[in-house]
Each structure stands twice: as structure tokens, then as C-alpha cells.
Fold:
Amino acid sequence: MRLFASLSGALLLLGAIVCAQSHSATPAKKSALDKAVMEDYVRHLFVWGPQIQVAVGDPKPAPIAGFNEVIVTGTAGGASQEATFYVSKDGQKLIQGNIFEVNSSPFANDLKKIKTDGVPSFGPPAAPIKIVMFSDFECGFCREEAKMLRDNIQSSYPKEVQVFFKDFPLEQIHPWAKPAAIAGRCVYQQKPATFWDYHDWIYEHQTDIKLDTLKDQVLDFAKTKGLDTGLLGSCMAMKNTEPEVDRSLAEGKSLQVNSTPTLFLNGRRLVGQQQWPQLKQIIDYEIGYQQTHAEKPADKCCEITLPSPLNH
Structure:
């Protein structure tokens, strides 16, 4: 009996040891709130290899209860891309996507970031449809998009659409795009209406322009438009308008623009070259939507006034 009891006790002890070891071998749960864990997960998700630098932002309160917002930025050379994730409080769940507030425009977050003061535009300021175009003067698709807009918008929607031009030169692949953007802002600074002549001219001559000939070609264009070539040449050489171009670039990046052309039509993102029939359909829809969803003025209540045309 003593031997049996001893064996039973030994077996129980051995079982306890094995059980403890099996529990200790269970890996601890990872948390996406750990930056190293988040980086590793996102690299796998997006196939971001070691050549891409990854920065994981600090968590901050998300617009949905029970989650934190974490922004992850990937950078390679001069290119960067942001991804926004919503991480559960325990770090176990990730959501990537858009959060909409039903009582606001579905494009409200982007609209807050878009600034149009001091930006080249054509079309009436009171137009209900605003198209903001992020473009690159050296981009072939941008050239086709620009021509489509210039050929159709004013003739089809003389009162309904205003178009804004935003510089987004892709310096990594287009060597003269940023100098051309700086030159365009110099033209706009000197003679705002002539910017659109410059816009049309540079796209028309896009295939003939080179980095080392750009300045002379722009000055030759300026002579035909009555611009002060001395002032323009100095503005280009000193890069006086580069801060304006950089602000436009920064705004585009905050909107997660990473290709050109990218349009925002009343805040609706349209990426890549658009065909006129499809764009016209979207404009017509938006015009109809604006007409049926415009806020009506509040009715006056419980007021007594004498009849007078001044009261209407």
C-alpha cells in the first residue's frame, strides 16, 4: 500500500509538472498596441520589405468606442503611404477602413483638409460643384485629364462647376515636374488669369520639355503673354513659390493622394484618369443631390408684422 501510494504521488507530481510546462509553453498573445508587433503585422499585410521604412504612430482615441486610432507610414525614397488602423483596447483586433457619421457628408473628413484659398481656379465661385484636381505637369495621364476638363467643363456647366488646380509633382519619377509647378505658381503670382494659359501650354508641349530647357521654354511662353520675363525668371531661379507647391504636396499627402491625377468632386475621391461620360454622370448626380438636399431656411414662427415689401 505504501508503495502504491508512493507511485500514485509520483505520478500526480509528474502530471502537475507536465501540465505546468504545457501552460508555460503557450505563447503570450501579441498586441497591436506594441509598435514592433504592429510593424511586423503591417509589413506582412502590405508586402513591405526591408527596403521600406515603417513608422508606427502613437495610439490616440478613435471615433468609435473601444478602439484606438493608429497611423502607420511606409516610406521608400521620396514616396510615402499612410494607412489608418483602429485597434481594439486589448490590442487583439484591427480594423482598416472608413468611419462615417450619418449626420455628416460621407466626405467630411477629406473636405476639412482641402484648402482652396489662393489656388488657381476656373468657373464661378458660387458654383455648387467644386472639383479639386491634384496633378503633375509631367504626367501623361494628367495631360489627358486636364484636356478633358478644359474642353468640357465650361461649355457643359458654365454656372454649376468650379475647378481648382493643386500641384502634386511626383519628383521620384518626373524630374521637371516640381520646377514646372514652381514656374506655374510664379505665373499665377504675377498674372492669375494667365495661369490657365500656362497650364494648357505646358501640357500641350509636355513631350518637348526637358529639365535643362524648361526655364527658357517658360520664358519664351511668357513673352507671348505680356508677362515680365525678368521678374518671372528671378521667381523661378530663387524658387520663390516653392513653399506654395510644398503646401499643396503636404495637403495631398494628408489626403493620402499617392497617384496623379486624383480629383475630389465635392469631396468624392476619383483616382486616375476619368472619362468624360462617367465624370459627367457623377456631376449630374451631384447637382441633383445638391438640389434635393439643400438646407432650407428656418420658417419664422409666431411673429406679427405690418405688411411691407421690406418684410419679405
Remarks:
- The chain has a mean pLDDT of 87.
- DSSP finds ten helices and ten strands in the chain.
